[in-house]
UniProtKB/TrEMBL annotation:
This is CPBP family intramembrane metalloprotease. The keyword Transmembrane applies. The keyword Cell cycle does not apply. It comes from the Bacteria. It comes from Enterococcus hulanensis. Belongs to the UPF0177 family. The chain crosses the membrane at residues 7-31, 37-59, 71-91, 118-137, 149-168, 174-193, 205-227. InterPro entries: CAAX_protease (IPR052710), Rce1/LyrA-like_dom (IPR003675). Residues 117-210 form the CAAX prenyl protease 2/Lysostaphin resistance protein A-like domain. One of its GO terms (molecular function) is metallopeptidase activity. The lineage of its organism: Bacteria, Bacillati, Bacillota, Bacilli, Lactobacillales. It holds the Pfam family Rce1-like.
Length: 229
């Protein structure tokens, strides 16, 4: 696996997304219009996604060439691993007192306040997020280390950081982020065991798709059929 110095620029993508989204956008008062806030947020993450693909396209191509050699078996395994991810989240949440998981009221516009077509747009960010997040946390912050000792340490560090980037999602409730910290460790183990970044990308992408894009598309279809309003 060839080392590429430009890959390290990828470490700046997620921090910049968080900085712009949480600090700059409020200064521009984009939250006054849910549609404008959603468009700005989606454009921001699409820009980060394209920057990620630009930086890592050679690495992704090389890894995909290896991954597709047993594509059906790997995808089937990914489905079981996604089920394991949902189970892991549920078990972890049940271990935390429910009162600690209560979220503070959010000032951010909720996708539920928008019509179904906008809800689909809101699902675009989690749909593409696995690429940037897996390359950042699982590859750069874990796979780049050759020492077994450092990998064990970084397995937990990257998991904690992965949970913390969901700060806005859970309105700053660290307890609510703990299940996602555990999920970050889980995805790290998948990457280490599969020895291929597509292994964790696929599990993460399927997980997010089932959580966001599929429900959004179903809601849109039901709305178009006049079943829901």
């Amino acid at each position: 696996m060839a080392s590429n110095k430009k890959h390290w620029w990828g470490l700046f993508i997620i921090p910049l997304e968080l900085l712009i989204g949480d600090c700059l956008f409020p200064l521009l008062h984009l939250g006054k219009s849910p549609e404008t806030a959603l468009l700005a947020s989606t454009l921001l993450f699409l820009t980060g996604f394209m920057a990620t693909i630009y930086l890592f396209h050679d690495f992704l191509r090389e890894q995909w060439r290896l991954y597709r050699s047993k594509l059906f078996a790997r995808l089937l395994m990914s489905i079981f691993l996604v089920a394991g991810a949902f189970l892991l989240l549920r078990v972890t949440r049940e271990m935390i007192p429910s009162e600690l998981l209560q979220l503070r009221a959010s000032t951010n516009p909720s996708p539920q306040t928008l019509n179904p077509s906008w809800t689909v747009l809101a699902a675009v960010t989690p749909f593409i997020a696995p690429f940037t997040e897996e390359l950042t946390f699982r590859y750069l912050l874990l796979g780049k280390f050759s020492s077994k000792f450092l990998r064990v340490i970084m397995l937990f560090i990257q998991g904690i950081l992965f949970g913390l980037i969901h700060w806005t999602t859970f309105n700053g409730n660290v307890y609510a982020m703990i299940p996602y910290m555990v999920l970050g460790v889980y995805l790290g183990l998948i990457y280490l065991l599969s020895k291929n970044i597509w292994g964790s990308i696929m599990v993460h992408w399927m997980f997010n798709t089932m959580n966001s894009m599929l429900p959004a598309l179903l809601l849109l279809v039901l709305n178009l059929l006049g079943i829901t309003t």
